[in-house]
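From the pipeline queue, job 12 of 40. The input is one protein chain; the requested action is below.

Action: predict structure.
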Amino acid sequence: MSIYWSSPNEIMLPCIQEKYFKQELISGDHSFGRIISGEVNVLIAEKTHVLNAGDTFFCPRNQLCTFIKTSKDGKPYSSIMISLRAERLKDFYTRHNIAPVPKHHHGIRQYNNHPLLESFFGSILPYFGLDGEIPPPIVSVKIEEAITILRTLDADIDRCLANFSIPGKIDLPDFMEKNFMFNMPLQKFAYFTGRSLTTFKTDFKKAFSISPQRWLTQKRLELAHYQLSEQKRKPVDIYLEAGFENLSHFSFAFKKHFGYAPTLVTGTS
């Protein structure tokens, strides 16, 4: 995987040579991006978004996403990614004297092709041909332009961009049932449910009468079994979505739990 970036990593051009690449995105910053080539499946709870070359999207901060990036039409996955950080957003809304009512937004937003988007992303690509990083003053100008374009195209985006709150304590069982497939440390699960790690483990044991790690493994294997048996998919196509890092670990865990290899469920590899 190659990543070209500005300093401090606010404008990036990820280029992935591998056929498949899985990335858990749990960012404290909003992300605004354009797919240049390849394809990416974005998994959010029970919903999957498929983005292809030319698609533009916005992902709010503190949104649990799994990005499964693949090559397509003989081209590797490549995209332009803009991180919209809290300090820049606070400065923007202060300077423009804008005080929207903040609101939590969940899920990916996609935007139709528009001259503003074509011009913006087209103007960024040449900077990655420079020797070294994009000059900081130019980064500031492009970030300001990105915010302005989003506000022009999306009448409700202010309520998301101007929300600087941290996650509050939420219903733990509901959150875990919707997000168990995300392969992240328990500290992250605790953070997104508004708890310390100690409180998270205590509340989890009360809710499920089992340790978090054991419960997560069981849920991921049950999801994988459903995808194999009911959706007739292949192990190689589902292990990432089910929350496993590699096929061999998935196959070992599956056989240990169910007593037979995942290839025996559908008769395919």
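Job complete. The chain has two domains: 2-161, 172-266.
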